Amino acid sequence: MPPLRDRPGDPFVLAEHFIRRFAAQYQSPELELDNQAIDILATHHWPGNVRELENGIHRAFLLADGGTIGLIACAQGMGADRPRGTLTDFCFQEAKARALAEFERTYVEQLLGRSCGNVSLAARISGKERSRLTKLMKKHRIARSQYIS
Questions:
Q1: Which residue among 6, 22, 48, 118 is buried most deeply as judged by most CB within 10 Å?
Q2: How many domains does the chain have?
Q3: Which pTM was predicted?
């Protein structure tokens, strides 16, 4: 069987299959891929073949916010931490989500730097509950250990 990169329509068909499977597994509604996420499926090189696609869709499914899997969740699932381009390369909703995610990441990193990795102190400084700050750290894969002096 040829590699996934040589079968142009297969990533989309397989992605839909994986989405249905994950929806059943997590007992949640099926999500749809937005147009920009579909573009990523069509243009990605797929060095990890079907396993990379499955893992990427799984991660994107878990990161998805709302009823669709958008560009950011899909790109992160495919191993691209941050989609390249300017904000105007994206629709307003995706550009806003991207800007917000970048702000959250930068803010949390600076908070942890200021508090030397002390999450409780960082939460007090920011006025957020510690649990909410911890969720933001997990969301952006920020380890407090990087900031401990």
A1: 22
A2: 2
A3: 0.51
